[in-house]
Amino acid sequence: xxxxxxxxxxxxxxxxxxxxxxxxxxxxxxxxxxxxxxxxxxxxxxxxxxxxxxxxxxxxxxxxxxxxxxxxxxxxxxxxxxxxxxxxxxxxxxxxxxxxxxxxxxxxxxxxxxxxxxxxxxxxxxxxxxxxxxxxxxxxxxxxxxxxxxxxxxxxxxxxxxxxxxxxxxxxxxxxxxxxxxxxxxxxxxxxxxxxxxxxxxxxxxxxxxxxxxxxxxxxxxxxxxxxxxxxxxxxxxxxxxxxxxxxxxxxxxxxxxxxxxxxxxxxxxxxxxxxxxxxxxxxxxxxxxxxxxxxxxxxxxxxxxxxxxxxxxxxxxxxxxxxxxxxxx
Length: 330
Hints:
Elements: E1 12-14, H1 30-34, E2 41-46, H2 51-57, E3 66-71, H3 75-83, E4 89-93, H4 94-103, E5 108-114, E6 120-125, E7 140-143, H5 148-159, E8 168-171, H6 174-183, E9 188-192, H7 195-201, E10 205-210, E11 218-223, H8 231-252, H9 255-266, H10 270-278, E12 285-287, H11 291-306
Parallel strand pairs: 2-3, 7-8, 7-9
Antiparallel strand pairs: 1-3, 4-11, 5-11, 5-12, 6-9, 6-10
Protein name: PhnD/SsuA/transferrin family substrate-binding protein
Family: Belongs to the bacterial solute-binding protein SsuA/TauA family.
InterPro entries: Solute-binding_3/MltF_N (IPR001638), SsuA/THI5 (IPR015168), TAT_signal (IPR006311)
């Protein structure tokens, strides 16, 4: 089995044609059901095999507004796209959040999506002599900048009594990192997603250390703040967030369907997908953000501040908005 860039490409498509008769099953969002949202187009950033696949599979694609999906392979790129007014809504972990705040990007976080922290790890070639993180001293280690991979690499180094100065850190995009690892240009790679079980399955790499117990599992939903003054946009965004949360809830009860749905989309064998889904350490759940979420993100920011990667005068509070709270049931 091989894993090529076709699994990582970005493509655009629309589910606007699936808008049928309104928000069936989501009548608790009164504004969405009461307002005429047919003129709203919600530009949503997603990862392949997630929103654009899961919402239809759960029977929840009857949007009362148009939805246009764009695919990305990292949360930092989604945040950049919102800042550039290329998309209206998307999600990422705590790590892109702190860089968003540091750069004063034009993005607002409106909700939290709790989720699993499995399939986040540092991998090494299967023939590597490294069997502990300390063995990476002086080695070339790839990572994806401003993502969970960047954060847990630093944390794992710290736990081993090392710093970034003790390795040769190589920032690479997802496809470039995969190519570099397979070609032997990297001694290790901090990465995430289905690429990990695929590398294990084809025998080209193994997990050196998992980030499962390092990451919080807090993912944030951000929106384009220029759209927030529009009540129709707020209603559509809140409806979408709760729709996605409900889709996760339904598919969590039928992971065989979940695996069958996304396997051909992400081009990963169904048995590998199902095994990965069954190994998730916590379910996805959409909810309003809380003060504890901000506190947790500050602890992540402190790591990057200590590394002199962001300035110490960080203000995370200004990134969060409660504009959708009246519409989110949590």
